[in-house]
Amino acid sequence: MDWNDIRLLRLDYWLPLVAALVAGGLVGIERGHSGKPAGFRTHALISVTSALLMLAAHHQTAWIGDVAGAEIVRIDPVRMAHGVLTGVGFLCGGVIFREGFTVHGLTTAASLWITSALGTLYGMGFWSVAISGTLLTLFTLRVLHLIDRRLPQREMAELLIRYRRDQAPDIAVERKRLQDLNLAPTAFSARLLQEGQVVEHGSTVIGGSMDQIDGLVRVLRGDPAVLEFEIIPRNN
C-alpha cells in the first residue's frame, strides 16, 4: 500500500473531484431554476461519480499495481468512459416521458448526459476541454433558451372535440372553422363513442402563434354542441 494515496489533501485527486462537483452543480442549478425534475444534487452526483470512476481508471497502478504487478496492468480509461456514459444513458431514459402527444424531459436527459461527460473529462484531467464544455453547456441551457423563445415558431397542438351525435358537424365544416381562425389542420380522424351517442373528431392543428390556439379555445367553449374538447400543445 502506498500511504501517500490515503492522504486526504492529495491535489491530483481532489482538484478533479471538486471541479466536477462545481460543474455538475452549476448545470443542476440551471435545471432546478427552470423547474426540471433533475436538479442541483442529481447533476452534482452524476458529475462526481463520473470523475471518481475516471480517476480510479486513470490511477490503476495506485490500487492494483502491488497485487498484479505492473507488467500486466493495462491502463485504458476510455473503456471506463464508455461504461460510464452507457450507464448514464439508462438513467437519462428514466426522465423522458410522454404525456398525450407531447414528449417531455429530452433537454433534462441531455443535460444529465453531458454532465456525466464533463465529470469524465475532469476525472481524466483534460482541463481545457472540460472547462470549455462547462461554459458551453451553461451557455446552451440558459442563453440559447432565451434566444429560442424569441425566434418565430409555428405552434402545433393536438385537437380532440366530442359532440352529441345529432349535432356533430361535417369534417368539411370543422376544417373551415379552423381555417377561419388561421389554423391549418391535418387529416381528421373520427370515432363513435359511448355506444354511438358521441362523435369525436381529432386532428393536429398548426398556427403561427398561441393567440390563434387561444382563439380556438374561446370558439369551442362557446359552442353548445361541444360536449368536451382537448387541446394539447406539442411545443411545451
Sequence stretches where pLDDT stays below 50 over 5 or more residues = none
What radius of gyration results from the CA coordinates? Answer: 27 Å
- Strand runs, count: 7
- What is the CA–CA distance across the termini? 56 Å
Residue fraction in strands = 15-25%
Summarize the amount of helix as a percent range: 55-70%
Order of helices and strands: HHHHEEHHEHEEEHE
Question: What's the assembly state of these chains?
Answer: single chain
Structural class, from helix and strand content?
alpha+beta
Q: What's the story with the biggest beta sheet? A: 5 strands, antiparallel
- Give the count of helical stretches: 8
Which whole number gives the mean pLDDT? Answer: 79
Overall, the morphology is elongated
Task: Tell me what the structure shows.
With 236 residues, the protein is α+β, with helices and mostly antiparallel strands. 56% of the residues lie in helices and 17% in strands. It contains eight helices and seven strands, in the order H-H-H-H-E-E-H-H-E-H-E-E-E-H-E. The chain has helices spanning 11-33, 40-58, 60-68, 77-93, 106-124, 127-150, 171-180, 210-221; strands at 97-99, 102-104, 155-164, 184-185, 189-193, 198-207, 226-233. Strand 1 (97-99) and strand 2 form a beta hairpin. The longest helix is centred in the middle third of the chain and has 24 residues, at 127-150.
